[in-house]
Design brief:
342 residues; alpha+beta; Ribosomal Protein S5, domain 2; nine-stranded mixed sheet; binds adenosine-5'-diphosphate; binds magnesium ion; DNA mismatch repair protein MutL
């Protein structure tokens, strides 16, 4: 075949594939948008593991009616504007392609009412076709409804696992965000039933009890906070499990760098190294770890899903994290159990 420029809708579907792999990827992008919008309450409703419906409602800053078409356009974002901005990303989103990608592979309805505005407006998109903006009724904030994900992309549907698997991917992800943002009230329903609701009281300890149960939460010890006198020094906080409490998978190791949920072999390795003499092989600790670093010390623009991250000073992060975990586990191992608040 000769070389040909792809039709825009074909190119859009290919690009969407990098962002939207499964329902959980849609959930992730939507709640990240709600968090970036400054929401203190986020509600997520799922039907059929998100394949039939994903709805994320927030009380964030909202989108003005005239900007709704841009919200669905590719490479349109309110979060970065210059190349320099990319060097110090403080928001979770920055690529301006999540909503466009989702709209390329699903039916999307976006309803929004900016804070203080009298009216709300809506726009919809069906597998890439975008409607005109029309009046709507809704409280302040934004409601994004995504229906029939991948119904027009049979190749992708084929690769999805059972509905139950998709539900558990979505719930795992939502648990992670609830742990990362204890100050946000998350309400999550699946098939119309409430799965969890966090109080939004700002206490990680409260969310830990809710997610992992009081027995496990009692086995978690806090990482001692470090002063940020040296701006290049990572500030590490969170909870790790006592060696008596472990899991057979690494699923309970959660890392947030500058409040972004990340997958990082480096961070996993640092934590596991701290437990090396304390846990038998095949046993893995639980951890919820927040790392704050200067944004110039990391690169989050590694992959469209933004869950991979590169550290400028890998060895330093590794060593500091290992030491912090080791210190917490050894020092606290003898201390009395931490009691969750009633
Ligand atoms: P990005 O998050 O990378 O900017 P998105 O495609 O996810 O790209 O969103 C495009 C734009 O739409 C955002 O920059 C933001 O201005 C707006 N937006 C999306 N979701 C929300 C929301 N829940 N509340 C307020 N604004 C939103
Ligand atoms: Mg986004």
């Amino acid at each position: 075949m000769p070389i040909r420029q792809l039709a825009p809708e074909v190119a859009a579907k290919i690009a969407a594939g990098e962002v939207v792999e499964r329902p959980a990827s849609v959930v992730k992008e939507l709640i990240e948008n709600s968090i970036d919008a400054g929401a203190s309450q986020i509600r997520v409703d799922l039907i059929r593991g998100g394949l039939q419906l994903i709805r994320v409602s927030d009380n964030g800053c909202g989108i003005p009616a005239e900007e709704l078409p841009l919200a669905l356009a590719r490479h349109a974002t309110s979060k970065v504007s210059t190349v320099e901005d990319l060097e110090s990303i403080r928001s979770l989103g920055f690529r301006g392609e999540a909503l466009a990608s989702i709209a390329a592979v699903a039916e999307v309805v976006l309803i929004s009412r900016p804070r203080g505005a009298l009216h709300s407006a809506q726009i919809s998109a069906c597998n890439g076709q975008i409607s005109a903006v029309s009046p709507a009724a809704s409280p302040e904030g934004t409601i994004v409804t995504v229906r029939n994900l991948f119904s027009a992309v049979p190749a992708r549907l084929k690769f999805l696992k059972s509905r139950q698997t998709e539900v558990s991917h979505c719930l795992h992800l939502l648990q992670q965000y609830a742990l990362a943002y204890p100050e946000i009230r998350f309400t999550v329903t699946s098939e119309g039933r409430e799965v969890f609701a966090t109080p939004g009281d700002g206490q990680l300890a409260t969310v830990l009890v809710q997610m992992y149960g009081p027995a496990v939460a009692r086995q978690m010890v806090p990482l001692s906070g470090q002063s940020a006198d040296d701006p290049e020094r990572p500030v590490i906080s969170g909870y790790v499990s006592r060696p008596a409490c472990y899991k057979s998978t690494r699923q309970y190791l959660s890392f947030f760098v500058n409040r972004r949920w990340v997958h990082s072999r480096l961070l996993i390795a640092a934590v596991e190294e701290a437990y090396r003499t304390l846990l038998l092989s095949g046993r893995h600790p639980l951890a919820v770890i927040n790392i704050q670093v200067d944004p110039s010390q990391i690169d989050v623009n590694v992959h469209p899903a933004k869950t991979e991250i590169r550290f400028l000073r890998e060895r330093r992060i590794y060593a500091e994290l290992m030491r912090a975990v080791r210190r917490a586990v050894l020092e606290e191992a003898e201390a009395p159990s931490w009691q969750p608040a009633q």
